[in-house]
Design a protein that fits this description.
The structure is a single chain. It contains 6 helices and 37 strands. By secondary structure, it is of the alpha/beta class. It folds into 2 domains: about 80 residues, MurE/MurF, N-terminal domain (Udp-n-acetylmuramoylalanyl-d-glutamate--2,6- Diaminopimelate Ligase, Chain: A, domain 1); about 200 residues, UDP N-Acetylglucosamine Acyltransferase, domain 1 (3 Solenoid). Strand 36 and strand 37 form a beta hairpin. It is flat and about 100 Å long. The relative contact order is 0.05.
């Protein structure tokens, strides 16, 4: 499209020639001659000038320094995301239920639903309108899939679990597997029946290979707009608030309560039955054994406030030299205490 047409869609101001053709989105390393590229800083701008991009998406204060046409916006990154949706919309499926899908006669299927080959929809399941189900998905009895949700291959949605509207569940995720609960008595190990469910809010994303366990009683709950990366583990009876981000390999033990707007970086682990406040940030590979108050930023094992953890780590690096000095001091003291011969 013409640059000026793209500007109209984005609500941007055009600076420079508006009738050039743009056909894609590039970045600082591979922008081609018909690409637009977004620029956030003056340093980025200098790198962007070295590319073949046709135009920049840029803030007004940097636009005067640009050496080619520009789209002036308040938030270049947001405009960049919109451009990705415009130029790379992804595959659009016509609603279709494959003859190779297995659908129980008691299941309810809404309007404009796509169900692909080898997927299994079991007894009393309810698939709401505009859902897309890829091959080899299993929807167990009485599960509900909310409107507009997309479920990628090899996902399992457990019995009676409720998936909210406009969720995205990536390949291989298991929602509603049994929680890990046992009781030892009378010389035997008894499995604790897991009779609860998993429920998700709106616009939740659950990454590939992630598992979310059903509750022992009640529900494991993931609230609106929370995004969970690949290979995470959410144990039984956990509750995640709104707009949380969980990076890869995060693990939550049972019955954790996590507030809104929480960020957990890669490989964070939470002990069971702890409460994480709102707007908490937990840095990578931290182990959290206790409750965390609103707004705290923590790191390490056991996780502590970031500055405290950094001071401890700095001190640890000095321990070998300190140990050597102490050993030398002990030798000197021992020499002074030796009896005369």
């Amino acid at each position: 499209m013409f640059l000026e047409e793209l500007a109209e869609i984005l609500g941007a101001e055009v600076r420079g020639e508006g009738n050039i053709i743009v056909s894609g989105v590039g970045d600082l390393s591979n922008a081609e001659s018909s690409d637009v590229i977004y620029v956030l800083t003056r340093h980025n701008l200098e790198k962007a000038k070295e590319t073949n991009a046709s135009a920049f998406i840029i803030k007004a204060e940097l636009a005067e320094l640009a050496d080619r046409p520009a789209l002036i916006v308040k938030d270049p990154k947001l405009a960049f995301l919109k451009c990705l949706e415009i130029f790379y919309p992804g595959e659009v499926f016509e609603p279709d239920i494959s003859k190779g899908a297995f659908i129980n006669e008691t299941a309810r299927i809404g309007n404009n639903v796509t169900i692909m080959t080898n997927s299994v929809i079991m007894k009393d399941a309810y698939i709401e309108d505009n859902v897309i189900i890829y091959p080899n998905v299993v929807i167990e009895p009485s599960a509900v899939i909310g409107k507009g949700t997309k479920i990628y291959p090899n996902v399992v949605i457990g019995e009676r679990c409720i998936i909210g509207e406009d969720n995205i569940i990536y390949a291989g995720a298991i929602i509603g597997s049994d929680g890990f609960g046992y009781h030892d008595a009378e010389g035997k190990r008894y499995k604790i029946p897991q009779v609860g469910i998993v429920r998700t809010g709106k616009r939740v994303e659950i990454g590939a290979g992630t598992t979310v366990d059903r509750a022992t009683l009640g529900e494991t709950f993931i609230d609106d707009d929370t995004k969970i990366d690949n290979l995470c583990q959410i144990a039984h009876n956990c509750r995640l608030g709104k707009r949380c981000y969980l990076s890869a390999q995060v693990g939550l033990a049972g019955s954790c309560n996590v507030g809104d707007d929480v960020i957990m970086a890669g490989q964070v682990g939470l002990a069971d039955h702890i409460n994480i406040g709102n707007k908490v940030v937990i840095l990578a590979q931290s182990g959290v054994p206790n409750d965390v108050k609103d707004g705290e930023q923590i790191f390490g094992y056991p996780a502590r406030p970031i500055r405290e953890s950094h001071r401890i780590n700095a001190a640890l690096s000095q321990l070998p030299e300190l140990a050597k000095k102490v050993a030398n001091m002990e030798k000197e003291l021992n020499k002074g205490s030796e009896p005369e011969t």
